[in-house]
Amino acid sequence: MHRRAAIASAVLLGLAARPSHAFELWGTGPLSGSTVQVTTNFDFRYHRVPQSQQLPDFPDLRVKDYFEEVFRNNLLLTKEGLVIGVQVDQAAYFANRYRLDGVLEDERYLYDENWQSPFDHALVRMEKLYLTKRWDNVELGLGDNYASYGRGLALNAIKNTAIDIDTSIKGVTFTASAGDFEVSGITGLTNTQDVSMFNPNVEITEDPAHMITGMRLAHYAVGPAQLGLHGVVYRFARAEDVELPKLSRYGDDIDLRVVGATAEVLGVAGIDWYIEGDLFDYHGEEMIGDESLERLTGYGVYTSATAYPGNATIQFEAKRTKDTERINTFLGAENWEAAAAPTLEYELVITEDASATVNSNDLAGALLRVDYNAKGGDLIPYVSAVAFHDADVGGEHFNSVPENIGHAITGLQWFKGRQSLQLNTGYRIDQRTDIDFGADQMTHLDATWIFPVNPRDTFEVSLNGRKFQWGNNGILQQEDFLEMNNALAYHVGSEWVFILYQDFTNNPIIQSEGNLKFIDPASYGQDEDSLYGAAEVIFHPKPASTLRLFYGAYKAGIRCAGGQCRSLPGFEGGRVTWQTTF
User: H/E element holding 354?
Assistant: First the structure.
């Protein structure tokens, strides 16, 4: 009965979520004449659970395999200066039970005991709801909104769908301007994304709802400069706070205060300049980590300068952060960060080792990059070099002594008609300050080549590989590893794409198993679970709609985007994805 109810729920919601064309509301009410836009995302996944996690000696050898379905529906209504948005998500399991010795067993749980749902294996959530109204010099927002100050050192509550992060601040926001001055503010409780669109939904938990209040004052046209001041206060929820009313966060002691300033100067001496500084004042004992201290201060400074001599672009960035990552102490289990400084890293090749540097509490570094625009923009080679001193040896770090880090990268972009090539290659070394502990080393290369095969179709080759060697990590010693992510894609006009994927990793930290067997000479003839393969077909019936059919597996690993990193699980099975906007 429970499974039938979940299926019925999914079908009804699917019918209700069918896309419709944008239209104007008729009538004479206050919203008449509004424009409505609907965006629908549907994902249906077949999860093949590795054989090592199946029930031994069970008649059905694939008993723990299951199906998962997710709907995400966004409705956007606009009329003059008014915007109303709603996002409703729904998730459900199928084939998620088996009978053992006459007893019906649940294989996994979609949500925890704190949620209320009429179905055991289905859940519906109104994830986001917001209203904004703009007048000549004032804008007011209610509900779910986002905020980022400067380069994100003090506050960076943004939507980052590239790694399935969407944490908004549910409350009140405003912006007011007068002449060259603008003031904005936001206050509310964090609203993390409960239903995941691209990653497995398992035991969805209660949102702890942290309180964030921030304000920013900007002064434009101060000569060639734009100046800004901002401040943010945080009160983070503890486990015992979940049972309390969420608004009680406003009555509790503040955990953290951050104040900062920014200055942006454009075109002075042919250079665009930016600098930001922030001070962190911690009072929450969990973030301080020292019972003898009642408070702890930290700071972050970031600066950049970009020059454009001739056909070249020269970019310089530098940062110094001390005890700034403590702000995210309570957020690790929630897989998002309230604030993050620019990483200066090449995010495509961040590993477990580099992730520790990204999240270091004692880091200084600088980046220099030079791009050269040759042949009218058809050829753009570049070189890049970054240097860090990472004095932090706690948290995610495997090393027990500080490190001096160097990372050199070179590459190019080349375009000729319908043909293009993008190439990046580099070498990174994390040299321990005590040479007896050696150095972590990584070489990497990624390339994408697109070329026409006839007047309509194109072929795409994508190669990505890295070789990593660990230094001496003592009792936490890990094995050196090799990783590859490759793909071949055939584009039939603008409507069809046929893709073959291949992943490989022998990194023992990775918590996933490959779906292709092969013989690794280093394993003395034993089968390895290091090779992954998959195929995908993509169809665009129109520019705003996409249908994807995928079957195979890809590996787990760290994914980074926009300064935030997440450890994402691997996947084996099949999936059907439909996305459309009307």
Answer: helix 352-358
Which has more pLDDT, 100 or 522?
100
Confidence band of 26 (pLDDT split at 50, 70, 90)? low
CA distances from 505 to 479, 555, 568 (A): 12, 8, 15
Statement: residue 290 has pLDDT above 60: yes
CA 570, CA 483: separation in Å to the nearest integer?
14
d(C-alpha 580, C-alpha 582), whole Å: 7
Going by C-beta distance under 8 Å and a sequence separation of 6 or more, which residues neighbour residue 510?
Answer: 555, 556, 557, 570
Contact 162, 121 (CB under 8 A): no
- What does residue 29 show for φ and ψ, rounded to 5 degrees? -75, 180
Question: Which residue in 109, 74, 76 sits closest to 197, CA to CA?
Answer: 74
Predicted pLDDT of residue 528: 67
The residue assigned the tokens 């408070």 is 295
Query: How many residues in total does the chain contain?
Result: 582
> How far is C-alpha 233 from the chain's CA centre?
24
Q: Is residue 319 a contact partner of residue 341, using CB atoms and an 8 Å limit?
A: yes
Token pair 């292709």: residue: 516
CB-based burial label for 357 (10 Å; 0-12, 13-18, 19+): buried
| Nearest-angstrom CA–CA distance, 107 and 423 | 45
Q: Which of 428, 562, 571, 579 is nearest to 158 (CA)?
A: 562
DSSP per position, 504-567: EE--TT-----SEEEE-GGGTT-EEEEEEEEEEEEEEEETTEEEEEEEEEE--EEEEETTEEEE
Secondary structure letter of residue 253 according to DSSP: P
pLDDT tens digit string along 335-347? 889 998 999 999 9
Q: How confident is the model at residue 396 (pLDDT cuts 50, 70, 90)?
A: confident
Residue type, 217: L
Quick check: 255 and 238 in contact, CB under 8 A?
no
Give the pLDDT of residue 6.
37
Give the C-alpha separation, 336 to 218, whole Å.
Answer: 27
Q: Sorting pLDDT into bands at 50, 70 and 90, what band is 71? A: very high
Q: What is Dmax (Cα atoms) for the chain?
A: 80
CB 466 within 8 A of CB 442: yes
Q: What is residue 104's DSSP assignment?
A: E
Mean pLDDT score, 419-443: 96
**Residue 87 · residue 72 · CB < 8 Å:** yes
Please, which residues have CB within 8 angstroms of residue 77's CB and are 6 or more apart in sequence? 25, 31, 34, 35, 36, 37, 83, 84, 85
Cα dihedral value 259, 358, 464, 568, nearest 10: -90
Residue 485 is given by DSSP the state: E
Residue 393 tokens read as: 């040896």
Map tokens 């090779």 to a residue: 531
Which residues lie closer than 8 Å to 188 by C-beta, 6 or more apart? 145, 169, 170, 171, 172, 173, 211, 212, 213
- Look at residues 493, 546, 563, 582 and name the one whose alpha carbon lies nearest to residue 157: 563
